[in-house]
Amino acid sequence: MLTTSRRTAISGVATLVLALPTASLAQTQAPAPLPEAIAEDPASEAPDRDTASRPAAGAQLDASVLQKIVVPLLDYLGSQSPADIGTTSLDRGSFVVRTDGSGDANTFLRGLPNVQYQNETDTDAGIDGQQILNTRPELLSISGGRIYENNFIVNGIPANTVTGSVERDNGGELTSDENTPNADRVYGLHPQTIFVPSDFVESATVIDSNAQAKYGNFQGGVVSYELNKPDRQRWKGTASVAVESDRFVNYVVATEDGTNPLGRKPPEFTKIRSSFSLSGPVNEVFSVIAQYSRTDAATKKQKDYIYLSGDIREKSLNAFYRLQVDANTDFGTFSLEGMVTDYSQGFESQDWRDLQVNVSTLTYAGKLKHSYTFGNLDTPFGQILGLTLDSKAVVSHTATRNETNSDVARVYQIREGSARTNTVYWTSSDPDILSWCRVDPTTTGNVTCREGGYGANKEQGQTQYLFSQNAAGSIWAGTFEAGYDLTHTSARRARENDFTYYTSVNTLWDARALGLSQFNCLGSEACSSDQYANIKTVWDAHDTTVTLNSFDAWLQFEQSFGWLTVRPGLRLQVDDYQKNVNLAPRIAATITPIERIELSAGFNRYYNGGSLEYAIRDNQPRGQAYLRGHDGSGNVTDTWTMRPETGVLGNKASDLRTPYTDEWTAGIKIVDPLTEGTLRLRYINRAMKDQYASADLGNNTRRLTNSGTGAYESATAEYARTWDVERVRSLDRLTLTGSFTWSAQELSPDSYFYDEDDLLNRILYNGRSYSVGGFSVVTGNLDIPMRAQLAMMTNWYEGKFSLGVAANYNFPFTGVQDTGRSEVFNGIRHDVWEDKDFDGTLTVDLHSSLELLRQEHRSVRLNLVVDNLFNEIGNASAGNSNPFRKGRSFWLGLNTTF
Predict the structure, then answer these.
(1) From CA 427, how far away is CA 447, in angstroms rounded?
(2) How many CB atoms lie within 10 A of CB 779?
(3) Cα angle at 393 between 392 and 398, to 5 degrees?
(4) CA 521 from chain center: how many Å?
(5) What confidence category does residue 438 fall into, taking pLDDT thresholds of 50, 70 and 90?
(6) What are the tens digits of pLDDT across the range 300-343?
(7) Contact in structure between 21 and 716 (CB atoms under 8 Å)
(8) Which domains does the chain have, with CATH numbers?
(9) Residue 11 — very low, low, confident or very high, per pLDDT cuts 50/70/90?
(10) How many CA atoms lie within 13 A of 324 on its CB side?
(11) pTM of the predicted model, to two decimals?
């Protein structure tokens, strides 16, 4: 958060989690060979090893055996390499306990160190119907990167929106009380193209620092999901359903004074989440898995009184389809996989007669992968042992569309008056208008009604073709890895028709000096006898398509010399848009002075992965305003005069340097001799350089530059311990983890994607002028000054009952808030913001699961997830239009296996 000296974010996370019997969070015994299913790094996609000696995934194990044998599925604090000091790996059990029950896989990240997702200083945080309908993945900042600067990977498929998810004019997403949506925006854009459902996640890996050379195109962090694999032993299936509704929610009035002056009703809604999965062997060679999930949401809200209609019902659908076929042959392992994300969300404005916008995202992604093990290979550089080669081809297409009911919108005035003087000057008598728009009897002020659509149909999308190969093996005193990516991306942004918005009217009250009793419409454009449109703005249709070809290559060695392990690496990035040759060095070293202690340090460089986001916006036309009037006889024609343009924006990035981040890390990993737990201490220092920014050239003209900067610093302590509990009656297993992170962050405010040219809505803070969007960059990158999390999960009665509890605490901090005062600064009126002390906030979540029926491989379980158990709403406040915040809420569901 921004303070008087420097914006400081201190986040602490202490996590206690109990793993399920088949999913251990972390093991404190000496390292043992990891099972095949998740032994490899999820993104490395090494071929499966023989599974004949292991039980099938998901098979029921004898409880007495589980009490005696600890199975280390994943090393929670790291991976197989000691250099992965910034890696956190979660198996199925530890992943589930961190989710919020909504089905969004990203919610597991909320309690991890160096991950920020909250905005405690928000003064308009009231929940509305559109927020409830929005079931897209959670937005996250990792290690100081912006929410759109992470690299998401799903089963080795890149799932990132390279065409950009943040708009030039920052106005937020559609909300229930939005009067006038932004005609330049494409609503519903998201940094991820694939919306991962939590039901199908087998394991997840988060890299917030010290990333290997094979990971690129990010300045935040890497999140890699591994989904369920086809079962090669037997046919099995799962099905689940869960429900949340307003009846399961405790709403809290969160306005500054704790009142609801407008008498608003809390949102009514119903959410139903369901999923189905079927997997098994077709024969000795082929195995298959088919999966489907969906989240249905529906809400109801009140229409504004002046419109002669009742409630509005809105809905959304988040569907996910997946099919994967594996073939294990003598020529290696082949895998063919397809995924589909089909998301739609409806919006209807309560402050328009008929404004409707349907926001949709449709993504198709397919992958063909081949994995082959060559065994040992003699080369001029030495013998390579266990050489493997992974080859994959990926094709994906995603498009986000905004479809509206009309490409013409119009404003009507049915009364002009003054609430201050309690005087009505003029009232419309047009029966056509009064048939759907009425006067508000509680005020004598102006009454304005709107009708039509907004923005015409718009679309932004991308199509990608990727071919990649990765070779790995053992050489000399350790291992090596080398590979490359060839990617072709085609991006499109379009408005399919011209959009015309009649934004202002002249009424007979405006013609009172002429003594007119009516207007004479000599044209037919937006004119009637008692009023006509005197200002219109036209946004021209456009269709921009740009392409980018990129080549990425990497080479990395990891060599051990007794107590010393070094991992040098280098990544090359080239594309034909910016034509920059970017070299990203990666180096890490680990010292093991004694068996239980590992000391690590590293330097890494990460380059930004998005530039087409600027290219497809550079030629987008801005709205052009036109004016007209009437003569002394009240005659109105269709002759308009162009208003001078408000400014020129240049968004060209092709001749700029690629933004990058330099990172220095240090850490120590210890097996605690007292508790036999694993302790990890880390330090991260990042400097963001050559960041894109906006430069003012004068005459209301701006262009894109590389003058932006940023910095991030953190120190983290983490702990993990798992017990097989034999002395406590009926308790099978207990796992505890914990972490604490201090961090500080700074970002330059001048970003082209924000409304730097907006001179009407400005903020004054500590003697400096900010736009609303630019100020949010500095103060609202989802950072909380201090956090701590505790979580616990227990497994009882041979797996029949499990209970998990997670608590998150935000420590008190100094942030910023609107004072409600205004002041003229440099000739422009500003809202004045100043520092404010915020209180600490504690939230507690609960996960529980009870087995109702078990018969061989068949079972039925009852699941209950409680979010915000103690009904805490924190420091963020709400406005009078949406005064409620979501307190305690429940998800209730069933799942079955067969």
Answers:
(1) 9
(2) 23
(3) 130
(4) 51
(5) very high
(6) 888 888 998 778 899 999 999 999 999 999 999 999 999 999 99
(7) no
(8) 8-407+453-498+540-611+653-897 (2.40.170.20)
(9) very low
(10) 27
(11) 0.87
Average pLDDT over residues 135-142: 94
Position 40 scores a pLDDT of: 34
Q: What's the token pair of residue 570?
A: 């280098």
H helices present in 40-162, as ranges: 63-66, 92-96, 129-133
Q: In the structure, what pLDDT confidence band is assigned to residue 34 with cuts at 50, 70 and 90?
A: very low
**Averaged pLDDT score across all residues of the chain:** 85
**What six digits make up the tokens of 602?**
């590293």
Q: Which residue has the higher pLDDT, 465 or 654?
A: 465
- The span from the CA of 494 to the CA of 492, in Å, is 7
Given a contact cutoff of 8 angstroms between Cβ atoms, the answer to whether 779 and 46 are in contact is: no
Alpha-carbon distance 12 to 789, whole Å?
A: 7
Annotate 549-563 with b (16+ C-beta within 10 A) or e (fewer).
ebebbbbbbbebeee
Residue for token digits 């251990």? 24
Q: CA 764, 766, 770 angle in degrees (round to 5)?
A: 35
Contact of 823 with 761, CB cutoff 8 Å: no
- The closest of 40, 42, 56 to 230, measured between CA atoms, is 56
Q: How far apart are the first and last CA of the chain?
A: 50
CB neighbour list of residue 42: distance below 8 Å, 6 or more residues apart = 89, 153, 203, 204, 205, 224, 225, 226
Q: Which residues contact 515 (CB under 8 A, 6 or more apart)?
A: none
DSSP one-letter string for 259-294:
--TT-PPPPEEEEEEEEEEEEEESSSSEEEEEEEEE
Q: How far apart are CA 202 and CA 188, in angstroms?
A: 28
